[in-house]
Write a structure and sequence with these properties.
With about 325 residues, the protein is α/β, with parallel strands linked by helices. The protein has a single domain (about 45-324), classed as 3-Layer(aba) Sandwich (Rossmann fold), CATH 3.40.50.620. Helices cover about 50% and strands about 10% of the residues. The protein has helices at about 25-40, 65-75, 95-110, 120-125, 130-135, 140-160, 170-185, 190-200, 225-235, 250-265, 270-290, 315-324, and strands spanning about 10-15, 20, 55-60, 85-90, 115-120, 165, 215, 300, 305. The strands form 3 sheets. Strands 5-4-3-6-7 form a 5-stranded parallel beta sheet, sandwiched between helices. A two-stranded antiparallel ribbon has the order 1-2. A two-stranded antiparallel ribbon has the order 8-9. Helix 7 crosses helix 10, helix 7 packs across helix 11 (about 270-290) and helix 8 crosses helix 11. The longest helix is centred in the C-terminal third of the chain and has 22 residues, at about 270-290. It binds iron/sulfur cluster (SF4) and zinc ion (ZN). Iron/sulfur cluster binds near residues 92, 129, 143, 246 and 247.
C-alpha cells in the first residue's frame, strides 16, 4: 500500500477514514488533529500574556500517550511565552514497572528542557501500590485505589502550581471506553460531570459542582490508541512499553474488546460514540445546572480536599489500608 499523500510505503491504514499513510504523514496527521482539538477547546486562554501566562500541568507517566502529548505540546507551545508547562510524574510504588517508566519521563523532560516534578505515593500517603494490591482491605481492583490517589495528587499539585489546566494523555480508545461504561452503568450524573470536567470548549464548561476543580483537557482524545503508538515509534520518542502488573480493570477490559470488535466490523464506531456522547453530556450538564443539582461540595475534615462527604474517599481508603 502507498501513502495517499506522498506515495511512499504506507505503515497505517485508518479504516474509519479510508486513509493510507506513511510514517511521516501519519505523524503530521496526528499533530494536526491535536492542534485542532487544542484550538476548538480553546485550550490557550485568549487573555494569557507573557507576564500572566496560562499555566498547564501535564500528567506524564512515561507511557506512549503522555509522552506523545508532551512532545506535541512542547512542539506547539514550547517557545510560546503565554504558556508555562510543568510535567508531573507520579510514582505509585510499583517495583520494576514505574522505575523504568520514570527514566523515560526524565529523558523526555531533559530532551525538551521542560520543567519536571516527580511525586510518590510513599511520600504523599505513606503507601506503595505493591503493598495495597497485596493487602487489598476493600476487596477491589488495585486500580480503584490507585485512581483515587492519582486524582488527589494531580489536583493538589495542579493547585499548588496555581495551574489553569490539567492535561492528560487520554486517547480516543480510552475516551470511547469511558463513555460507553458511563452509559451502560446508567450514570447520567457521571455523564454530566465528564463534560464539565474534561470535555467541550472551556468557555462552555461551568457548574455541575466541578468548577471547584482545576479544569481538565485531553488534547489526544481524537487520536486512536494505535496511531499514538505508531507516532511514538516513528518519532523515536522515549516510551516505556510494559504494562503495570496490577492492571486488571475487568469491566473496562470487556468494553475494550467490545469496542474493538465493533470498530473492526463498523469502522468509525469510536468516533461516533464520542460525537454522540459529547452532545449527550453537554445536554446532561445543562440539565443538572438548571436543576441546581450539582453534587454539593464541602471540605474533607481530615485532609481539606473537596468532597461531597465528611471524609473524602482518599482518606477513607487510606484509613482502611492503615487498619489492614
Ligand atoms: Fe495504578 Fe492500575 Fe495504572 Fe497500575 S494499572 S498504575 S494499579 S491505575
Ligand atoms: Zn480527605
Amino acid at each position: 500500500m502507498e501513502c495517499d499523500t506522498c506515495g511512499a510505503e504506507a505503515i497505517h491504514h485508518a479504516a474509519y477514514s479510508g486513509a493510507h499513510l506513511c510514517g511521516e504523514h501519519l505523524c503530521r496527521s496526528v499533530e494536526r488533529r491535536v492542534k485542532r482539538r487544542v484550538r476548538e477547546d480553546g485550550l490557550l486562554d485568549p487573555d494569557a500574556t507573557p507576564e500572566d501566562p496560562d499555566r498547564w500541568v501535564i500528567g506524564l507517566s512515561g507511557g506512549k500517550d503522555s509522552v506523545a502529548l508532551t512532545h506535541i505540546l512542547d512542539d506547539v507551545f514550547g517557545k510560546d511565552p503565554r504558556v508555562e508547562m510543568l510535567a508531573l510524574t507520579i510514582h505509585e510504588g510499583i517495583d520494576g514497572y514505574r522505575d523504568a517508566s520514570l527514566d523515560a519521563c526524565v529523558d523526555l523532560a531533559a530532551d525538551l528542557s521542560i520543567r519536571h516534578e516527580v511525586v510518590t505515593y510513599e511520600e504523599e500517603f505513606d503507601v506503595r501500590m505493591d503493598d495495597v494490591a497485596r493487602e487489598d482491605p476493600e476487596n477491589m481492583a488495585p486500580c480503584a485505589y490507585c485512581g483515587v490517589f492519582r486524582r488527589d495528587v494531580l489536583e493538589r499539585y495542579a493547585e499548588s502550581f496555581d495551574a489553569d489546566k490539567l492535561l492528560t494523555g487520554h486517547n480516543l480508545d480510552d475516551e470511547a471506553q469511558t463513555a460507553l461504561m458511563n452509559i451502560l452503568e446508567g450514570d447520567v450524573k457521571q455523564v454530566a460531570k465528564h463534560f464539565d470536567a474534561s470535555l467541550g470548549p472551556f468557555d462552555e464548561r461551568d457548574g455541575a459542582g466541578t468548577d471547584a476543580f482545576v479544569p481538565r483537557a485531553k488534547p489526544l482524545r481524537d487520536v486512536p490508541e494505535k496511531e499514538v503508538a505508531l507516532y511514538c515509534h516513528v518519532r523515536d520518542l522515549p516510551v516505556h512499553m510494559a504494562e503495570c502488573p496490577h492492571a486488571a480493570e475487568a469491566y473496562r477490559g470487556e468494553i475494550q474488546s467490545l469496542i474493538h470488535d465493533l470498530e473492526e466490523n463498523h469502522p468509525g464506531t469510536r468516533h461516533s460514540i464520542m460525537a454522540g456522547y459529547e452532545e449527550l453530556s453537554a445536554l446532561a450538564a445543562d440539565r443538572y445546572r438548571d436543576d441546581g443539582d450539582g453534587p454539593g461540595l464541602s471540605t474533607c475534615e481530615r485532609c481539606g480536599s473537596k468532597t461531597s462527604r465528611d471524609v473524602c474517599r482518599k482518606c477513607r481508603l487510606l484509613a482502611a489500608i492503615e487498619a489492614a
